[in-house]
Protein: Phosphonate transport system permease protein
Organism: Limimaricola pyoseonensis
Amino acid sequence: MTLSDLNRDDWTRFSFRQRMQRYGVFALCALAIGWALGSIEVIWAWVWDAPAQMGDLFGRMVPPDPTNLAAILRVLWETVNIATIATAFAVILSLPVAYLAAQNTTPNRATLWIGRFILVSSRSINTIIWALLFVAIFGPGIVAGIVAIMFRSIGFVGKLLGEAIEEIDKRPVEALEATGASRFKVIAYAIVPQVMPTFWAVSILRWDINLRESTVLGLVGAGGIGIILQGAIDTFNWPEAATVLLAILALVILGEIVSAWLRRRIL
């Protein structure tokens, strides 16, 4: 019997059991969402009034005040430096972690779990939380911001590099090992060439992400353009806050352009 001989009513994509399972999952999701909405305290009067408040706030921001533009540009450059330095250190430190976290390169089971624990602990804590911690250790300033972004980035870069190492072609590695090559030569000539495209792609992507994250570190005293933004908000200087927001938007757009150019040139 061919497919054309079958009645359309007799064919379905999912069986009855599969449909029931899907409906059950949808019902559980709906219950979870309903429970979450019912368990939080929302002042709905403020929610309905939000559009009017947003219109009033944006009205106070117009026109932006460029009086402090020189200081804004100086701190904006500091923000770029924070992202760049933190990314460079994170990439360097993530290389041995990625080596340990990859199943085909880690020396033993213990080092595998050590590497993965570092990756998980780095990615599980938000950059702002890292910044709060390091502001308490190093004091307010760009050092705390650099270390915070660096710690956050190690998990991101290390995880993607570790996955790239696990997916390499094993034949070059086995060929070098068969000739009696040292472990260093195996890494340098069999593993590194295969993961270099991923290395550059991940590094550029992480720099782009860090550029965005570094713009808010100043809100917790970790340096960058966020310091001026927080000061403008605290003093209700909304025209200056608008200028800072426009500067951040321009920085993010410029970062996208630079990232795309680097990917075209390197990859």
The chain has a mean pLDDT of 87.
